[in-house]
Amino acid sequence: MFSFSLWFWALLALLFFWAIGAYNRLVRLRSAVVKAFAVLDEQLVRQLVWVQGCLPEAMRGGAVTAPGELQDEVTAAWARLHAASEQFAVALAQARAQPIDVPGMASLVMAHEALRTAWASALADAVPPDAVPSAERLQSRWMRLLHQSLPLRTAFNDAAQAYNQAIAQFPAAVVARLFGFRPAGTVTRLAEGR
């Protein structure tokens, strides 16, 4: 009887200490995801600030035209870029508040794609050929900003995948489910060069 009780308590203690270790590992992995996003966030903020700085002076403070007012092609291209940059700023703020949130990361990726599309449209439709700086120089700087974020995006995605694998593996999945660890989103297409 004494032997069974000793084995029971030893097994219970082993299980308890294993659960504490598994929990601490999941917390470390989640923290690594948050830290990796903080570094990526800095680079994305640089992209956003740079794009907003390229907007015409009149657009930097807010809306350029009243609703329903006709716009020429150039103003419309800048207005699309302004709207896309505002949308990206909102998505970035949401992702910053919850860097583990899957829908938040998906929203960030979609907003970045909209910003890239609006940027290409603004360069094509609104920057005259004799502009200083030229469209090629603006595009070159934009591509440099995108490429600078590639290793940061990879580091974030790697951290998120390691965390997601850890919360999915049995028996750590039991601890993850018990303490509410949710899968992290990734930024798969964000900042790929085009």
Molecular structure report:
- InterPro entries: LemA-like_dom_sf, MamQ_LemA.
- Its main location: membrane.
- Pfam families: LemA.
- It is a single-pass membrane protein.
- By secondary structure, the protein is mainly alpha-helical.
- The protein has one domain.
- Helix content is 75%, strand content 0%.
- Helix 1 runs antiparallel to helix 2 (73-97) and helix 1 (2-54) packs antiparallel against helix 4.
- The N and C termini lie far apart (72 Å).
Give the helices and strands, then pairings.
Blueprint: H1 2-54, H2 73-97, H3 102-126, H4 135-168, H5 172-179
Subcellular location: Membrane
Protein name: LemA family protein
Main location: membrane
Give the termini distance in whole angstroms.
Answer: 72 Å
Uncertain regions: pLDDT < 50 for 5+ in a row?
A: none
Number of helical regions: 5
Shape: rod-shaped
Look at the structure and give the mean pLDDT.
88
What's the count of strands? 0
Indicate the radius of gyration in whole angstroms. 24 Å
Biggest sheet overview: none
Total of domains: 1
Summarize the structure.
The chain is an all-alpha fold and 194 residues long. Helices cover 75% and strands 0% of the residues. α1 (2-54) packs antiparallel against α2 (73-97) and α1 (2-54) packs antiparallel against α4.
Entry keywords:
rod-shaped, 5 helices, mainly alpha, 194 residues
